[in-house]
Amino acid sequence: MVTNDDRGGNRVTRDPEGTKRRILAAALDEFAAKGLDGARVDTIAARAGVNKRMLYYYFGSKDHLYRAVLRDRLADRAPTEAAHDRTGAGRLVALQDRVTRPREREYIRLLTWEAIERGTRRRIEDEALRRVGIDGWIDDVRTAQRNGDIPADLDPAQLVLSELALTIFPLAFPQVTRLVTGRSPTDSEFLEDRREFLSRLARHIDGADARL
After folding, report:
1. In contact, 10 and 54? CB cutoff 8 Å
2. Distance CA 150, CA 137 (A)
3. Quick check: pTM over 0.90?
4. Which of 65, 154, 192, 203 is buried most, with the most CB atoms less than 10 Å from its CB?
């Protein structure tokens, strides 16, 4: 149900939170498909079932909506979940399982567009907020190293970056994945093979360290 807002002709719903959720979901789809520069507010509004006035009423601008989408995804995901209390094969497999979830794949596409459009010379949106999860992940690695579960001579930040690369790259660059393997990174058989490979890779690394 909606009511008229006499201040400007905007139609404000009686369920503002539900409306915001629809807008954010539609915006994630649009931004993931086209990036910030290519995304159209008209398309987002239509997908969310609202008019543009209502979208601007809640989020102010396309840039503000983009930042809201990023914050929403950050709040909905906990990077340390995949790493917490896990080592070796368990860490990689848990992360692989996480990044292949449908909504997580959209977030990866969003980050890919961010890298293309904004590069390394512009500030990172909500960098402090985004670093919280990453820093927690790195701290988990340090804790595992102190407990003897991860080799102490591995740089924690480099290990986290490598885990991200091993799991995210096939999804972020599907054309390269197809060229190398002949399969799509979302094919069920590819995902099973990738999961098994990461588990074997981690076990080999752990085994090599144990023999030193």
Report:
1. yes
2. 13
3. no
4. 65
CATH architecture of 77-211: Orthogonal Bundle (1.10)
pLDDT along the chain (212 residues), means of 10: 41 77 95 92 96 95 92 67 56 88 86 82 74 87 86 92 94 95 95 94 67 45
The Cα 109–Cα 134 span in angstroms is 19
Retrieve residue 211's tokens: 């023999």
- pLDDT number for residue 29: 93
Highest CATH level, class, for 2-74? mainly alpha
Give the pLDDT of residue 80: 42
Of 15, 38, 27, 33, the residue nearest 73 (C-alpha): 27
Helix 102-118 / helix 62-76 crossing angle, nearest 10 deg: 140
- Alpha helices (runs of H) in the chain, residue ranges in sequence order: 16-38, 41-48, 52-59, 62-76, 80-83, 88-99, 102-118, 127-146, 156-172, 174-181, 188-211
Instruction: Give domain limits for the chain.
Output: 2-74, 77-211
CA atoms within 13 A of residue 129's CA, in its CB half-sphere: 13
